Amino acid sequence: MAATKTVRVPKAYFAISDHQSTKSAIVMEYIANMKSLSKGSQKLGESLANLHLHNINLGKRLSKQTNWVGKGRDENNEFISEFGFHCATCCGSIPMVNEWHNDWVAFYARFRLEDKVNGVLENCGDRELRELWSKLQIVIPNFFKDCDDNQIVPSLLHGDLWSGNAGETDETPVIFDPSSFYGHSEFDLAIARVFGGFGRRFFDAYHSVIKKASFFDKRCELYELFHYLNHWQHFGNSYRSQSINIMKRLCKS
Hints:
The structure is a single chain. The chain is an alpha+beta fold. The chain has a single domain (34-64, 83-251), classed as Aminoglycoside 3'-phosphotransferase, Chain: A, domain 2. Helices cover 42% and strands 12% of the residues. The strands form 4 sheets. It has a 3-stranded antiparallel sheet with strand order 3-7-8, with helices on one face. Strands 1-2 form a two-stranded antiparallel ribbon. It has a two-stranded antiparallel ribbon with strand order 4-5. A hairpin with a 4-residue loop joins strand 7 and strand 8 (173-175). Helix 2 (104-124) runs antiparallel to helix 3 and helix 2 (104-124) runs parallel beside helix 6 (216-235). The longest helix has 23 residues, at 41-63. It is globular and about 50 Å long. Keywords: Kinase, Transferase. Its EC number is 2.7.1.172.
């Protein structure tokens, strides 16, 4: 994210790990005088949209050149043509599958939703969850009917952009603690609507840069489901009812 120069993030210096205990840590920049996001909400919306457009714009520029650059393995200046990431990333303490895939809908269904459903089922074997997932996975493509094959281009995502992972200094908003991968830009806006959420200025500013698409709200609910399932897997049955209710609504859509 830092390499895109679109949004302020703490500088990462190096990582350390203890191979005996499998524990690790990252040494990062200390940003002084950072406080909760408030006045910087509008600027953050614009900056996040520009982060999402960075890889898309790289692809547009490269498409005009004779030597097309295919899928890269870092986010500096190579266009990333597939969904995923070059390594596992975590949303919370559980690693996510980031295998490269050229189909976003298939990637999201398999490596995000199904992976979470299976994780929850391993913990509690919930029969209703299993039955709802068998129904929901059939209708997932319906939420993308307005998107042609070329419309969803991989964007570098923060991945876990809830209110607790954003702040501001006197000069600029700051985001941190990412769960990054390359995916559909709308995915980042789903968790931004829940778990504290961001205000209207944030969303209005974002959509002034990237226009709000048809079926956006329904897709965001589909993307919110990942985070509720992830919380269910991490924290137990207190997130069961929200997950089940979302799945029921989506199955009826």
